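thread: overnight batch results

M.L. [08:02]
morning all. the overnight job finished for the chain we discussed friday. pasting input first so we're all looking at the same thing
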Amino acid sequence: MGKMKVHVIPHSHWDREWYFTSSRSTMYLVKHIKEVIETLEQQDEYHFYLMDAQSSLVEDYLRYCPEDRDRLVALISEKRFITGPWYTQTDQLVISQESIVRNLLYGIRIASDLGHSMAVGYVPDAFGQGGNMPQIYKEFGISKFLFWRGVADNRLKQTEFIWQGNDGTQMLAEQIPFGYYYGANIPENDTELSSYLEAQIGALEEKASTRNIYFPNGLDQAPVRKNLPELVAKFNQLDTSREYQLASPETFFAELEKEVADLPVISGELTEGKHSRLHKSIFSTRADLKQANNEIENILSNVLEPILSVSYSLGNRYPHHEVAEIWKLMFENAAHDSIGGCNSDTTNRDVAHRYKLARDLTNSLLDLNMRLISEKITQKHPFQFTIFNPLPYANSGVIRMSAYIPEADFTLEDTAGNALDYTILEKTDLTEYVLNQHIYLNPSKAIYMPEKVFLAEILVGVKDIPALGYDTIYLNLERKEAPHYSKETSETSIENEYYQINLAENNTLTILDKTTNRVYKDQMIFEENGDDGDSYNYSPPRNDFRVTSKEALLEKVKADISDVEEAITISFKLQVPYNLIERAAGKSTREMLIQTRISLRKEDELIRFDVKVDNQVLSHRLCVTFATEIASRFSTADQLFGVVQRPVRLPEMDVWEEEGWQEAPISMEPMQSFVSLHDEEHGVAVITEGVREYEIIGANYDTIRLTLFRTFSHMGKTDLLYRPGRASGESIVETPDAQLLGEIRATFAVTLFETTFDKAHIARKAKEYLSPMPVYQFSDFLNGRLIYVYRDEEKNLATKYSLELPNMDNAIMSAVKKAEDSNGIVIRFFNPYLYNEIDIPAIFQGKEIHLDEKKSTEQRTTLKHAKVQSYLFEK
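M.L. [08:03]
and the structure it wrote out:
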């Protein structure tokens, strides 16, 4: 055998923000990249430098140093300055699948435009690897994977393996077993250096199955080691048993591939925290920021992009640059520390500000494009509403809309004149404000001006809104009927076609499934307990004190009954400890008010929950549980482009302390939107708009526990029950904002089913829940400063329209958008089932593209488990 080859990779892991802000990081980044450029230009023997695979860093640099673009292009084209494929180093477990796809799409395009994008999935520090990432990487032409966290030696003794995704896609993987910073502190004294090499490289040799070793030289925000070529030469002089060379991830894999054979295969998610911390309960850190992320991700890919596609098909400009700006704001917040919330309060305020910008841009762009359509629709009434359907099939149901309505009697009706069921939930008199905003661009035009104007929240039942299209409804003043309001009662039960829900004496819900008469008791139990953890990990106090809503004081119950919805609002107070000191002493001196609105819409299989909590106590956690009476060994949750089954308890929990794991292998798990417990006959699923974290609990593991929020006092703490030893992050950084004092809101839904999981179509229900049909009101009296004044447009659009893209029955549409490089429309589907395969209609044949929107030569006739497929329909 030849010598062991040690590939020395100079790099810097560049967190855009953490305990420091992105502003501070960027100023140091400019200095750093300029030094890297100068070093590479001045030293031909300095062959490579890896800039953390984030093209956003180069974009940031060129914003301040545009004069260096040509210098960077030359170095990137020569594959010496290495960037891409990521835009930012994203999380892979609670960030949406479309966010990850666009992160790679933009990251690769930016790097490629500068000369070259690294074709290695480099993930040095993310807290675990998503189980379907091999398929996503492959769709971007990436077949190599280089990472640190997620695989332990109880499953793999060597650093090289084949990683197989949930769909079966395989890729060559190399683990950096001791971290990306392992070779950062190289001594320069010959004696010390010899001992250092023997210890450091020797440890890597023990884990290598080939003659190639990956040896990273760098760490967080590390300056370039300018004398590294000299040091590598000295390595070869002092250690003649090995061959040392400067390398890049791509050159390393080129050598590795020559030797690997019969590698072990590891499948699915990589989330083992034996040797490196995964921080599994970070999924619920800073619930306020997690909720903001999820809300914007949902509206961006589920609502905005579909409506933009409809608008584009009607002749309007597709706003690529505006959409890119929104996605890039989301990518900045998707970086593992940023979405984790494991930052200083100052940094998390920056994260919150970016969410505000992204939300404002998303809502404004949606409003503009709905308006561009609505103002051209033939106008029949002064109060006209356009209802948009962002799904690829006709949709019906009860929707919520904000509307400016008159004081006069009226009827809501469709284009055929059929009266629609509705109820006004609330309204506010805004007459003076609204009418004073009006601007008469054309004083000669007579328009309807109401005497009084109210801003109302209305629930209205609509039917058969066209797929990826719109329909029109009217407020008809000529067909007078008294406005519909809900009837408030003191009843403690509600029902619709599917369920009857009763409030039990112990403050829980009893739900009757009316289709089978199956009764579910002890539903919606709120659990409050202490949190002795930090911004990285939930950890129970050693002396915990738990409180549940079963012991709470019931303050008020009211029901609101209408033709389109029945709802019950329950308010109760929990007597809870103020802080961890009181909790340890078993004292409860504070009241925590929880108000929950449970609603059943007409002909809807979802039970909707809207929870508001007045949080005035410290360092605790609030969850809600739903008992299923289904003894389970596995839970089913959605993940990247599919579903995954996870054990409800890991056997490593019995040995983790004895084996010295970095953290307890708890079963708090992430999801994209839903989790389910089921057998072959029935099941229960919880769909969340907020925190994407759950745990299966109970003696028989038959209860779903959804985390609503957790609070804590410090960025990092030492010696936690679930994470012994050193602090993660900085223990001196206090985080008072993370106590989340004030009102906290959580929204989610529950659905029951009497069939198998696949036949219940839970993913479709989740998609519909997270893809609300938005509404635009066109009324001339609103024209003015209130909504930006507009000129009259020719009314040349029909009252109903569909983009008429083909649907793939039973598949879930993940995205529809204009193509990046053509005038066509991209539509993307995935298989959301455990076992079912989906037949692909013939109309899709020949239109296959990859996630990078390049033409695919593979033509499928079926969409198998966890598979994703995109198609391009030219305009």
